[in-house]
Amino acid sequence: MQILDGKLVSEAIKAQLATKVAELKAAGKKTPHLAAILVGNNGASETYVASKVKSCAEIGYNSTLLRFDEQISEKHLLDHITMLNENADVDGILVQLPLPKHINEELVINTIDPSKDVDGFHPMNVGKMVSGLPTFVPATPYGIMLLLEHYQIPTKGKHAVVIGRSHIVGTPVSILLSRSANPGNCTVTLCHSQTTNLKEICLQADIIVAAIGKPNFVTADMVKEGAVIVDVGINRVADASKKSGFRLLGDVKFDEVAPKCSFITPVPGGVGPMTIAALLKNTYHAAIGQKVNMN
Ligand code: NDP
User: Fold this and answer.
1) The overall pTM is greater than 0.90
2) Do residues 143 and 278 lie in contact, with contact meaning Cβ atoms separated by under 8 Å?
3) Is 179 annotated as a binding residue?
4) pLDDT greater than 90 at residue 290
5) What residues does the Tetrahydrofolate dehydrogenase/cyclohydrolase catalytic domain cover (predicted)?
């Protein structure tokens, strides 16, 4: 069994981006600039945004963090997004989800200029991804593909089972894995809460991508010997022995599943850091006016 070390690979991607940014600066060109919007005080969201902003600083990007109170009106938030759209110095805009209930997430995403939508959630970018056109690919699926590519995981002709059909992870990763590309060319089964024979389907999988949001959901009896496991889940589970009061668990019961696998991502240190690396790549592409072609 080999660990798919997302931390290591993300550090390598960040080092490459840092070199490219230094070259842009030396050539008198624009420094990539990511603007992040955080609404409210959700602990997990705070952690994610902080690490995105910190990563920008590490590789020489500019970043702006706009923090708003939980009570911010939808109009006020949309006005700020419009200002960022019109600010020529800002290349990428991300709005950390979830948003408070009184704000329409769809409207917020639709307001972001598609050319600055580095999370790849705008319907125009989603449509381009589905159509196989160059675009911003959502960061988590993009990060997963970069990780599979780095470790040269054989995917052609393999049966990939994706558990979870969210717009931000499950659905896009199922599309990317089914593409005629490398990594890709998988036969994909997309499962969700209404799937009746999940265990049987998982036992046929050469590759499992678990994006469910339930700790330890995928157990050893669901996994074929030699399978590749990508665990997207980040679940906070109460743990009095930790200073924070919680620990992070993936969607896969790592200790019992790992011995059966050929490759597996750990949590933390797998898909999480790759998501940030992919976001930074998208921001670089936004700054130089280029899109990613996953075909
Ligand atoms: P969502 O809650 O949006 O989606 C969860 C999916 O899991 C749904 O499609 C749901 O099905 C499915 N599901 C729920 N219960 C079952 C079940 N019993 N059997 C099969 N499928 C089930 O979650 P996200 O996609 O946003 O996130 C998933 C996990 O990944 C979370 O832990 C999240 O924190 C993590 N995450 C990690 C990221 C990273 O960078 N590593 C980035 C984004 C998310 P249905 O559609 O029928 O309800």
Assistant:
1) yes
2) yes
3) no
4) no
5) 4-119
